[in-house]
Each structure stands twice: as C-alpha cells, then as structure tokens.
Amino acid sequence: MYNIQAYPTTVVFNQSNIHEYEGHHSAEQILEFIEDLMNPSVVSLIPTTFNKLVTQRKHNEVWMVDFYSPWCHLCQVLMPEWKRMARTLTGLINVGSIDCQQYHSFCAQENVRRYPEIRFFPPNQIKDAYSLRIWGLGFLPQVSIDLTPQTVNEKVLQGKNHWVIDFYAPWCGPCQNFAPEFELLARMIKGKVKAGKVDCQAYSQTCSRAGIRAYPTVKFYFYERTKRKFGEEQINARDAKAITAFIYEKLETPKSRKEK
Prior knowledge:
Layout lengths: L9 E5 L2 E5 L5 H12 L4 E3 L1 H9 L7 E6 L4 H16 L5 E6 L4 H6 L7 E5 L7 H9 L7 E3 L1 H9 L5 E6 L4 H16 L5 E6 L4 H6 L7 E8 L4 E7 L4 H20 L1
Parallel strand pairs: 3-5, 4-5, 7-9, 8-9
Antiparallel strand pairs: 1-2, 4-6, 8-10, 10-11
Helix pairs in contact: 7-9
InterPro entries: ER_disulfide_reductase (IPR052460), ERdj5_TRX_C (IPR035674), Thioredoxin-like_sf (IPR036249), Thioredoxin_CS (IPR017937), Thioredoxin_domain (IPR013766)
Protein name: Thioredoxin domain-containing protein
GO biological process, one term: IRE1-mediated unfolded protein response
C-alpha cells in the first residue's frame, strides 16, 4: 500500500499527504523533518515564483537559492543542512530551492551547470557611491574576531591589547549596514588594535554587563600599560576613517601628556 522497500522506513502522515523521511533515523533529525513540514524554512521555488520573488525581489530583500537535483548525492547530503541553516536566518535572508530535474529548461536558461549550485542574490539597492561601497566591502573576508563571553574576559578584559568591539544583533538592520564598514576598520587598524564582534542576541548577559543599550554600539577598550588597567570609551562615529582617527588620537594622548 505504501510501497515500503527497506527497513527502517519512516513515513509522516499529514492529513491527506504522505511524506517519506530520508536521512539518519535519530529522534532529533526526525523532529526537525516534522517541524519543517509544519513550518517550512525553505521556499520551494518554481520558475514563476523564482521570477516573482527572486528576480523581481524588493530593493531590501536578500535571497539564497539552492539549484539541486533529487538524484544528486551531494544535494541529498546538503538538503537537511540547508534547511537547518534557513531556520537560523529567518527574518534576515530568504532561502529557497528549485528542483532542476523537474525544471530542467529553466535551470539551463539560468546557466546552472552542476548540482548543487548555490547562488546569492543581494539587495537591489545599489544606487550611489555609498551603497556600491557597502556592497563591495560585503564580499571581503572577515578580519574581525567573533568573541564569546569567555574570550571577552580572557582576551579583552584580562589581556594587554587594545580592542575595538562592535556589539550587534543579527536582526538589526543598522548593524547589517555597519558590518562591512567595521571590517574595513579592522583592516585599517590591523597590527595596532584588535577588532572584535559580540553577538548580543547570543550573549545578552555579556552585552548587558558592558552597558549596551542600543545596536550597533562600538566601544574602544584601551590598555594603559603604566597603570596596568583598561580604559573604555564609546564611539558614536560609524565611518571607518573617523573611528580610526578617534582611536589613534586616543592612543597618542598619553604620549602627548608625558612629553609636556
């Protein structure tokens, strides 16, 4: 009746629909499969919805699309990870997939040559020099360091290096706009001041202890060697050059006072 040809086979009955589970038979992964059936994290695209949702996306929308084929082993391995990733990006980036076996002509038209092929569709808001700059910076590899409560304590508060830290939240629009600028800052001060980032959604207590009330918040932690202690100061600027100038001026101030 259900064409069961191997054991174990797990089948989920959702009203009149029958869904066969493919994957490792662990409770965690089966629960993820059921959750995804009830609340899909990945949008199943067809040529018409691809054109409407992706090609003609709103100016501030971002899409990641997996072009796959059901017979492709790498596609099968990727799919559960793809869905898991999509759940972590809910509200930030739209995630979709399109079956290139079923829509072969469309995928050929889109010049898809291998499976799986993942494509990123950035916002359609490149209108001026500033937006072009932010867009270009977004493709540079990360230079700043992702900090955790432990590394904030060990490397920043108990260390002997100067740090500039971006306290942000993943869902925060201004934080996303500032992120490329912060990476540029990290390159400009590399070798003199370390640059770090703290995810205040994941580490809310750390951010609370740092006195963070809004996102993004940039703080400069400078080590005063003569006093063997840290000073800190909030930076309101959001331009890499302006922040760099502020930091270098702050580091030069003790020397100027000493010379006088």
